[in-house]
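Why do we care about 3D structure at all? Because function follows from shape, and shape follows, mostly, from sequence. That is the central idea of this module. The next example makes it concrete: a single protein chain, its amino acid sequence, and then its structure expressed as tokens.
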Amino acid sequence: MEPSRRYFLKNASVAALAIGAFRHLPSQAQGTNHSNEIKKFGSLIKDPAGILDLPRGFSYKIISRSGEPMSDGLMTPYNPDGMAAFPVRGKPQQSLLIRNHELHSYIKTDSFGGDATWAHKFVGTKAYDFYNRMPANGGTTNLLFDQRTGKVEHSFLSLIGTLVNCSGGVTPWGSWLSCEETQDGLHQGFGKDHGFIFEVPSNAIGLVEANPLTAMGRFKHEACAIDLVTGIVYMTEDDESGLFYRFLPNQQGVLAAGGRLQALVINELPSANTRNWQDDIAKRKATLIPAKKSLSCKWIDLDNVTAPDGDLRKRGRAKGAAIFARGEGLAFAIRSNKRRELFFSATTGGEQKIGQLWRYQPSPYEGTAREQEQPGTLDLFYETADRTVLKAPDNLVIAPWGDLIVCEDSYSTTADDVNYLRGITAEGKIYNIAMNPQQNKGEFCGACFSPDGSTLFINIQTPGMTFAITGPWQDGRT
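And the structure:
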């Protein structure tokens, strides 16, 4: 498969799918409480089934549930998270989806029903690691979905033996980069260290061999995005003192060939603390960073990137790298004026600790010896101070109409504090797309659009559901 360049300019995130029935939301149903700043698609309508609230005119289908059997005979894993939707050659009505599963081996459920003999026979030598005789629990599943029929054609386990596969990113050559958000390993009883990225081809027909891309670093990987102009890979780290990384590959399109791992430094604020937490500022551990202020940047090389001591971010900050409050979602866009932008979320950043959205604009000479002639810039695109407008931003994707789509990841016990899927315009105005009314308040994750733009795929991690959402998405352009 050779996904088109145009497709990747429109889709810079993640998603997946499997079985259910479309629900059409009645116009007479009651709306939700949070109206938000603008109503691009109108108010949300309460779902009589209590599963997913959407604007009038939109419908959802549950295409996969955790625990259901897949085509390969295994059980669909729990905790779906980051996902990607790829085109299928000659079949524009179909999407090929790769879905992460954010599972640790301490969780007893697995795709093999606890049968170690069956698991070993099935995975052979393709699992990266084992724990208590079972393959390490994290990994990915692939699904082929037909938008025209609304059916999953087939589904199967595609990566196993990894841990806590949270998010990742798509590549221009048609693969998914699945990220481990943990540094557990030998000291926790595993056979190998974890905290790496693994590549899964979208044209895989079964389980792939799990080979870590060690040159891309060992840390709490969250998401990654590739600049389509330079081939540079950018990465976030889900830690309250996480760094923002980039990887300069030795060979474009062949990440396994190695390269240089670097971390971002704000020129005027070496070792910057960007979190804007009130207690940090009161103790003079940080300087308040205002929204929209352009900050000149540079990048520093990191050494010993496999970090057996799990200290990569600490060594990076000691050399001047900036820290961010739980870097999570990451999305790449090229605007009509050819300006390139990378947006990433800091889930607990901001004075209220309920989220920031950062924007990095690469240098025209990004990754070259001339970079400091015109450095890349960073700015605080949005910092939320009101949880009813936006909170706990996690996975991100660029919509076909250019807005940033934000998945919320909050598990507050407050009764009316629920998770939304939000949109944010170039002017920083926020609107609602969906709300999870279920009692468990599971996070939204893995949002992405089908290659033809007709369908939005998204997960609710708990209890483990994947949705295909259709409706007048073209209204987003107005």
